[in-house]
Write a structure and sequence with these properties.
This protein is an alpha+beta fold. The protein contains 15 helices and 16 strands. Bound molecules: adenosine-5'-triphosphate (ATP) and magnesium ion.
Length: 424
Amino acid sequence: MRIQTIRGFRDILSEEAGKWRYVEDTAREVLDWFGFKEVRLPILEKTSLFARSIGENTDIVEKEMYTFTDKSGDSLTLRPEATASMVRMFIQHSLYGQPKAAKLFTIGPMFRRERPQKGRYRQFWQVDAEMFGFTHPLADAEIINVVDTILKKLVVPDYEIHLNSLGCQNCRKAFKKALQLYLEDKYNELCPDCQRRYKSNPLRVFDCKIATCKEALKDAPLITDYLCSECQTHFDTLQSYLSHLGIAFTLNPYLVRGLDYYTKTTFEVIIPGIGAQNAVAGGGRYDNLIKELGGKSTPAIGFAIGMERLIPCVPDSIPQKRPIFLALLGAEAVKLGLIWAKALREGGIWTEIDYRLGSLKSQLNRANRLQAAFTLIIGEDEIKNGKAILRNMDTKEQINIPVAPEQGLNIVLKILGREKVGRD
Ligand code: ATP
Ligand code: MG
């Protein structure tokens, strides 16, 4: 039997990868504007890192992790998300208070053993950004501003930013009690998972996608009614900043997110109409996590954008690059062509040669299939006359240019520059 990809894993072929590169480049560019520095992290971590940060009673840790025992006996896990690894790195390298480590991001694959479906894969990519060391809601506004700026730059239509506050440990204690009391009455209407969650982690019930559970929560107490004055002020100030920036948001008191470490602000970016998996990004504040993982108490906030969900929403308006093609006939022409190719490529031009060196007809055929904008034709006659032929593949118009790169290169670069061949 032929070997194929594992279920939930997929190849990204070159047509699609071009768009991935564009989206990643755009995200990197915007993150640069905001002063975020890129880091690269391991894909494999100790299992305890995720169990302790994401939370034992979350879907991710309970059922979605790729965990195995290494030959040394250590339990290792393919990272299901990046925040835990970011925090581990921050603590391990003692990055406290370093301005260059206050805003970090990474782009890479994450792994969750979920049921594969549209917008849900077992390996998926995230752009993940985190800010360390800031308690002020200005940081929350900036982090949401980054996501909004990336989506605007990519011209993503019709996205909604859903916003909530989960309060601090104090507000949450009272809320948890009230919620448990409410859920006690609804116990029989809950799915088996939520019946379990009701005891261990009642907030998780809000994250359940099952309709009967959603119905049962209709009159549930809302966290936003339980915020202490500090959390309320934080939330109000954040909202005032977002309004001031003209960033539209929808308050959603049901938004608890699937990870346990959040405090105060949580948010999610939804694109209605892309199907059941319509969350393209999520994030929030996690002021206790660094301390809980053994570091010095440091407030933090971050977000993750899901690439597989975002990319189909980015309009296909990326300018298509087109090559210049060198049609070379005869041994001398090949040698001269190599010099031309070297000079053009050094000038930033995508240059193609048909390595099979067939007839002129077959080389021009190849040029057309590669959608070359121009073909530079060099044969024995051209070398003898000192004039190569530059053919515009769209208009079929041909002009002569000096066959020697020293004289001809600048002329060609000028024509290509005007036509934007092989350049952004
Ligand atoms: P959801 O429940 O909608 O899958 P989540 O709350 O589990 O999302 P997060 O852990 O917040 O997701 O991850 C941030 C983003 O990563 C999501 O908004 C989504 O775009 C993307 N994402 C999460 N899981 C997957 C997956 N299995 N396949 C593809 N993208 C995913
Ligand atoms: Mg999920």
